[in-house]
Amino acid sequence: MENRQWVSTALVIALMVSVVAGQGILYPIESESRAVHYLDGIWNFRLANESDSDVGHREGWYRQELRKTGQTIQMPVPASYNDITEDKAVRDHVGVVWYDRTFYVPRTWSSPNMKIWLRFGGVHYAADVFVNGELVVRHTGGHIPFQSEVTSILQYGRKNLISVAVNNILTHITVPQGSLEKLQTDSGPKIVQYYKFDFFNYAGIHRSVVLYTTPSVYIDDISVNTDINEDTGVIKYNVSAGGEPTNHSTVSVSLLDRDENYVIRDVMGNEGNLRVPQAKLWWPYLMDPDPAYLYTLEVRLSTKDEVLEDVYRLPVGIRKLGWGNSSVTINGKPIYIRGFGRHEDSEIRGKGHDFPLITRDYNLIKWLGANAYRTSHYPYSEEIMDFADREGIMIIDECPGVDIGSYGFSAELLEAHKTALTRLHQRDKNRPSVVMWSVANEALTSLQGASDYFHAIADHMKVLESSRPITMAINALYDMDLVGQFMDVISFNRYNAWYSNSGRTDTITNNVKEEAKNWHKKYNKPVLMTEYGGDTIAGLHLSPEYIWSEEYQAKLLSKHFEAFDELRSERFFIGEMIWNFADFNTAQTYVRAGGNKKGIFTRNRQPKASALLVRKRYWAIAEELDNVTPPNDLSEYVYKNHLKHLKTVTEEISDVALISV
């Protein structure tokens, strides 16, 4: 099919580009030397024919405004396009869609000493980007930023045209994987996208589109690693320059504290170590009275030519991770993860960037007393990650390798998976909130070929970095799994009393304890439960508790809590993560009533009964482990002598029982 070929070609080119990379993908910021202009807003939009996705490329829709090629509609950017309209053909479209808009570039940006960059925060899944009719970048991978220099292509002081072809097709060699099939319908055969993962394959320009400037010789990338030596913090840094740096180029580095006071000034050299006496450490939320302390690394690149000095400021958190056979530590203290898996998902916007939603989510995370989450099952937006750095929320950073092996373990898939990990690491390597890398979710780790495949994946990740542990969320049974041997932390997903023994909450506690112990016994590594839970229809109340009711979800979680508390005394169990933070959309299926309902919050972020239960537990753990004072609103006032009254009632019941006997 032409659709399949379009994605495969793009993937091959993207892989070739990644080989020569090493190029930075620093977040666009304003500084004395850099300007940023957002192209977010309303764009023009149209679908390409599903049976002929190449039509726009072939007919050159990018050479003119899209409205001149046929009927268009308005489409917000950033946003998924699927839920914006009432048209089922838009929601369920398979293949290529087109966006375009016009914009102006100031004449003042036309300078031989300046470069202009076009950057996309994320487009799902593959994208061809044209500016003024010229192809400027082709990218595959729906969750990672990409950019291109467009200095020579722009028209300064005049109108410019940007056109983007977006393809949502997933194949056997994309990450994640999928397949295309023909379905006979009443109106003839149609192409249908199938995938094994349990979330909707939202598509579109999901994150911001930005034009930004740099000097012609510029700071291309900054790498930071931190350490602690008694009360001294150590920041190891490396700065790479882009453009045409010469022997006359110099790099200087300074460090500022939270109040913008200089701690260290003007250290010369593109790499080195900054030693910070009495350093303020980056601590997770609730593990310290002053969590998430961030310094600012100020980097300056200058030349003796006429080129403007480039300035970039990077937030830096000083912390040190460690791990062994039974624990993961931060700054020498064992961590106990209490959190959940999540999704970038909301009504109307789909996976589109949404600052109000991001802010609401972090308020709820902190309200719950949680301290971590996993970016299931793909990299989240840079702005979401910024919040984690600033708020002290620990992140298990996951690449989009979900259900890997569903269509085999090919060499092409392995290279695409490595590329996804490389890009994820390149983007998030400097973030103090990232405490683990997750290389996959629910891969088919018991199949032949899984061992060699994930041995190569683990080796690749450890070459990229050795300062963070790696993990993956495993759903194979412990005695059938072949890949945990390559991980630093064993993470497992299991749905007791939901997918197995449905309705039988009396099977949960012992099953969870036994499985966690067996994982540790097999691999002698820290163990974390990354998924457990059950679907709940908000407002459905059934007593005694019954499957799908709010009471059942609360009971199911409570029985897991019993297991976790016993496992914590075993010293190898390092955390619990509910599936899911909030309800989210999925592909249409008879087992999903308007999406996955396992959230402790509804899709519009209202609490179910289980959220209140989880809040009491997480704050109780924080009080025990982190010595914090829980909020005073965890329990409602009932009766001034309610404890004495309850004791009296209990004694009376016991007396009645004795008399009855």
From TrEMBL:
Its annotated compartments are: Lysosome
Provide any one GO MF term from the record: beta-glucuronidase activity
User: Can you give the residue ranges of the Glycosyl hydrolases family 2 sugar binding domain?
Assistant: 38-215
How would you summarize its activity regulation?
Answer: Inhibited by L-aspartic acid.
**What family is it from?**
Belongs to the glycosyl hydrolase 2 family.
Q: What is any Pfam family matched here?
A: Glyco_hydro_2_C
EC number of this enzyme: 3.2.1.31
Q: What biological-process GO terms show up in the record?
A: carbohydrate metabolic process; glucuronoside catabolic process
To which species is this protein native?
Zootermopsis nevadensis
Looking at the record, the residues that make up the Glycoside hydrolase family 2 catalytic domain are: 326-622
Q: What is this protein called?
A: Beta-glucuronidase
Self-association state and partner proteins as the record states: Homotetramer.
Question: Where is it mainly found?
Answer: other
UniProt entry keywords in alphabetical sequence: Glycoprotein, Glycosidase, Hydrolase, Lysosome, Signal
What reactions does this protein catalyze? a beta-D-glucuronoside + H2O = D-glucuronate + an alcohol
Function summary: Plays an important role in the degradation of dermatan and keratan sulfates.
User: What are the residue boundaries of the Glycoside hydrolase family 2 immunoglobulin-like beta-sandwich domain, all occurrences included?
Assistant: 217-319
Gene Ontology cellular component annotations, sorted alphabetically: extracellular space; lysosome
InterPro entries the record matches? Beta-gal/glucu_dom_sf (IPR036156), Galactose-bd-like_sf (IPR008979), GH (IPR017853), Glyco_hydro_2 (IPR006101), Glyco_hydro_2_AS (IPR023232), Glyco_hydro_2_cat (IPR006103), Glyco_hydro_2_CS (IPR023230), Glyco_hydro_2_N (IPR006104)
Q: Which stretch is the leader sequence?
A: 1-22
